[in-house]
Design goal:
Elements lengths: L1 H24 L7 H5 L9 H10 L24 H6 L9 H24 L5 H12 L2 H9 L4 H18 L4 H16 L9 H6 L1 H23 L10 H8 L2 H7 L18 H8 L13 H9 L10 H12 L6 H22 L12 H10 L7 H15 L15 H30 L10 H10 L1
Helix pairs in contact: 1-6, 5-6, 5-8, 6-18, 8-9, 8-17, 8-18, 9-11, 11-21, 13-14, 15-20, 16-17, 16-20, 17-20, 19-20
């Protein structure tokens, strides 16, 4: 085993070189359908610097296809408008392909930084090495770099989030942990806000409540600026129309879905509020594409028909219910252990409840797997649970089963599901394992009590 650990640094270096070389020469193209059958390298990236250039021209950051094109092709920009200003500013003045190359380097640095934070939890050299292996050496990571998606900040956010709870639980450095938690929430809020579903759990736990409200305050203030300041929202529809629209879910679903609109933007989709409303717009839309790896399309393909979108929300409902129970757990160790496992489970609900999940998005599970690695000797999981976790997690690092099929442009639904199999099913099984373990932690420690409103309020401001 020691000899194997000695080889891992060489494997990491070889994998990094292979990924970078493949971005130029296509060595890994055979593992991805789109690399063989479509022009998609950098497709998610070119809209990012274009969003900032749009603002300079007085155009909506979300008007990806308006004005002078940037790059040969692009998907729609949907990041937080603040990401456009504070991050993409630095990349917007280079030529498209040079800008893309710099962003690949930037993304890799974020992944290496994430691994560095995990390595600080290590007690020996082998664990340090594994930190970098688990964060970098995975096929979804390569695909994230290939399409140029702004997903690496979320990987960093998830790393800092889980590490912060770990440090609080094991009394490593509370002050540093709170800083990591604040950074994690803000990074996710202003890039990909998956942590929004985690807020109830973080608010229910007194150790994380104060920091969570601080992050929410900053996020709310900055987000309002990007709604009301004309320079930051040059094609805003106005506050009155926005307030009338944002609670009309049927209108949003019918008029603000990029796929239903055939990629034509209306005035509502050029307002900065589209960043928040797009999740509602796509909430019931089912895109059964070969590169979509979600439980809803997996089940629909298996059944040959669409079943109601509400059926797929059960992972979210379970997670929210368990989040509320954390308030009634007095034992600190049980409360924080349940919290860190619940945050991991909530990260999995995206793949189980949301419809349009692309393969690169599985890269945000790398921090979760690394986190489990550091829990292996903490008595959190039984031997059987740990074995199942290893097996499920391994599939996220391997290529999808696309590479075992004959190379062709069109596949049937059964072949679609074979391609998705080693992404969707492990995510579902891992979620079930975590929920069972969380329930086993909560049940013996759950105790109904009268809410301490005064203590709750003090915890917001002073904890």
């Amino acid at each position: 085993m020691q000899n194997l650990y000695k080889l891992i640094p060489w494997f990491i270096a070889a994998w990094l070189l292979l990924m970078l070389a493949s971005l130029k020469f296509g060595y890994l193209d055979l593992f991805f359908w789109a690399a063989k059958n479509a022009q998609v390298q950098g497709i998610d990236y070119f809209a990012l610097p274009k969003s900032f250039l749009n603002l300079l021209e007085g155009r909506s950051a979300f008007d990806t296809w308006g004005g002078t094109p940037y790059g040969p092709y692009a998907t729609w920009y949907l990041g937080h408008p603040a990401f456009s200003v504070f991050v993409m500013f630095w990349f917007s003045f280079f030529s498209p392909w040079m800008s893309y190359a710099l962003f690949v380097v930037f993304s890799l640095l974020l992944l290496i930084g994430s691994a560095h934070y995990f390595s600080k939890l290590a007690t020996n050299k082998n664990e340090k090495v594994m930190s970098y292996f688990l964060l970098i050496c995975a096929f979804p990571v390569y695909w994230m770099l290939y399409v140029g998606n702004m997903h690496a900040p979320l990987v960093l956010a998830m790393s800092l989030l889980l590490i912060s709870i770990y440090e609080i639980l094991y009394d490593i450095d509370h002050k540093s942990a709170r800083k990591k938690l604040l950074a994690a929430l803000l990074i996710s809020f202003f890039s990909k806000p998956i942590v929004i579903l985690m807020l109830p759990a973080l608010i229910m736990v007194k150790e994380t409540r104060n920091t969570t409200f601080k992050a929410l305050g900053i996020y709310t203030f900055v987000s309002i600026l990007f709604i009301v300041v004309p320079t930051l929202n040059p094609e805003g529809i106005g506050m009155a129309r926005l307030l009338n629209t944002m609670f009309d879910f049927d209108f949003i679903k019918q008029n603000m879905n990029i796929y239903k609109n055939n990629f034509v933007l209306n005035e509502y989709m050029k307002d900065n509020a589209i960043h928040w409303l797009n999740l509602i717009a796509q909430s019931e839309y089912r895109l059964n594409h070969i590169e979509v790896f979600s439980l809803p399309v997996f089940v629909d393909s298996a059944l040959g028909k669409q079943i109601p979108a509400s059926w797929y929300k059960w992972p979210i409902h379970i997670s929210l219910l368990l989040s509320l129970t954390l308030f009634f757990i007095n034992d600190k160790k049980a409360r924080l252990t349940a919290l860190m496992l619940l945050l991991s489970a909530i990260s999995l609900t995206f793949y189980l409840s949301y419809n349009t999940v692309w393969e690169y998005q599985y890269a945000s599970l790398m921090p979760v797997v690394a986190f489990f690695y550091f829990l292996r000797n903490k008595g959190v999981f039984s031997k059987l649970e740990w074995t199942l976790i290893i097996v499920c997690s391994a599939f996220f690092y391997l290529p999808s089963f696309y590479f075992i099929l004959p190379q062709k442009e069109v596949y049937n639904l059964s072949e679609f599901n074979l391609i998705r199999l080693n992404r969707v099913i492990p995510a579902l099984l891992l979620f079930v394992i975590l929920i069972i373990r969380i329930v086993r932690i909560i049940l013996p420690n759950f105790k109904l009590r009268k809410p301490d409103v005064e203590g709750y309020i003090k915890g917001i401001f002073f904890n």
